[in-house]
Batch of 4 targets.
Target 1
Amino acid sequence: MKMTKFKVINRVSRKELIFNSEELREFFRYRNDVCFMRVGKRPNEWRDYAVSVIKPTSEKIFKPFAISLLSVGLVILITKLIMLCI
């Protein structure tokens, strides 16, 4: 199962955070807490952050397999050439 990831960047400090969908919802959750507001801190607001979606990469088995076959073939070829010269 591919999960969508989000990159969240603070517009002031340029700090980057990476969240999944549940963590993103919790990060921007509205907090109706009197003690929280009394301290002087405000909850995370959408306008203070730039949010972008990180595209999931699909891993393909063919490319690493082809590279490994090519490298093994190259090693065998170089070994045969060296053995012919000796």
Target 2
Amino acid sequence: MTCALYEENYERILSAIRFEKTDRCPVVPAGGGFCARVLGLSLAEYCRAMAGTADMHLKAWTSLRPMVDGVHDLVFHPDGLSGLWLSRVKVPGRDLPDNEMWQVIEEGLMTVDDYDQIIRGGFLKWREAFLKERLNDPLTGLASLVAAARPAAEKFKEAGLVPLVGAVLTIPFENICGARGLAGFMGDLIRRPEKVRAALAVAGPELLEASRQTLRHVRPLGAWIGGWRSAGGFISPGIWEDLVWAYFKPLAEMVIEEGVIPIYHLDSNWLRDLARFRELPGQKGILALDGATDILKARKILGDHTALLGDVPAASLAFDEPAEVKTYVKRLIRELDGVGYLVGPACEMPVNARPENIVALTEAAHEL
């Protein structure tokens, strides 16, 4: 069941993706932890809620006026990050003080011998064993969270909010880099590049097909496609071409083929290689930037090919005055000509963002 407000917001988001002029730019934030602050809860209380984070998110976002158009996070728990990073995650209330931000631990639990296990036995089989044996099986405890996502999407629609992200995907480069640790993986690219290439060659098709089946099962509006350490700011053009783009492009194309909106969530600096996104079907996806990639330069490179989302700085949302936030957002909207742009934070809303600054961010979009 949907309502008139949902249909209006949905069409506004689609218009932004298609670079169509509409009444205003849509506002689509990310960041579940921020909702705990809005509701006066500790991060530990938020994390313990599991499936209940859906109701927390909905209550928090609908309590702000004017309301945002859509959101990324339907449900969330930090342990879900282990499935992306293949790393341990410290959680407030369990491993950390109640109001300390969750942390991905950089330790490199994957060994060099694991490359051979992936090559011989397959990536998905290896990943399942890795999560159970070295990470204490973090995903099993998230069954209630996963089950809550679909009914949560319907609740958001009934409230008029567009649930933009219904699946979280990435490429094998990111998984294995997280498992090995940044220093270990970058060393592997120098000392044993052929072993890395062989493991990625096995992992790529398996992950691509698993991602396709996820989309067919969930049928989300949009899919988050993450890239952080695979940015050109970290690696050479040759490595990026062979080990990043060779996997990122087929993943993005598959998402589009399945009728799902790709949200390219690009952390770190991707400016060097941004023109390559022109190889993907145009006006089908959203490029979400975290501030490290200059959003105005991104528009010059991509033109009307790919809509942009972001990149209101976390520091501004946490520490500036509402008037300063509003000025920044309005300037950004004007410089992007008010089309092909969705208003939102850089990466996601910091947990210490001032609620009045989120109101100012949304007001800026409504006033132009």
Target 3
Amino acid sequence: MDIIRKIIIGVDPKDGMAYYLGMRAGGGEVAAIIVDEEHLVRYKMKRYLVYIESSEGTMLWKSVDNMPCIVEYDCRFD
């Protein structure tokens, strides 16, 4: 499984919106960015789901539907 570390949304990366693991957001911090596989199979379009973790638990914060994105994966070599 590929772990997404950062996603930049938009055609031009320098003007795009970026979300990355550990980023403070919505009263918590970004805990996970995943590809919604069910959406891909059902609608043939990529959708990324951004989850945050706070004192309330982990919850879906944003979804990015059918937008141009640059995805940065976590490339740890353990």
Target 4
Amino acid sequence: MATQPPYRTKFYKNKREGKVNGICAGIADYTGLDVTLVRIGFIIALFLSSFSILPVYFLAGWIADDTPRDVALESADERRFWQGVRQSPTRTARDIHSRFREIDRRLADVESFTLNNNRSLANEIERLR
């Protein structure tokens, strides 16, 4: 039976970098925040809620999946990219589209330079068409 690839936009708990259940480390991975800030925020929320958030924390630790190996081993650039996708998929798609437009423009410039400065290459390309 084939296994599903890991979803890069899903929340996973991070037991490798976590202290208790890995929920704060998972939130930090998911949002791109520093794990220390997430832990401090959780402690503040814990006291402000009179410890009523504690069952939610352990429930999240019980329900959430562990980070798959493929997701855990990705580079920092990949991690930043997927955090951007989670924050705003539309903006990320626009960024990718503009990058491809820029690459296409640069490739057209290279092609134009090559064909204008090398008539024998241009004639060879025309003959192959």
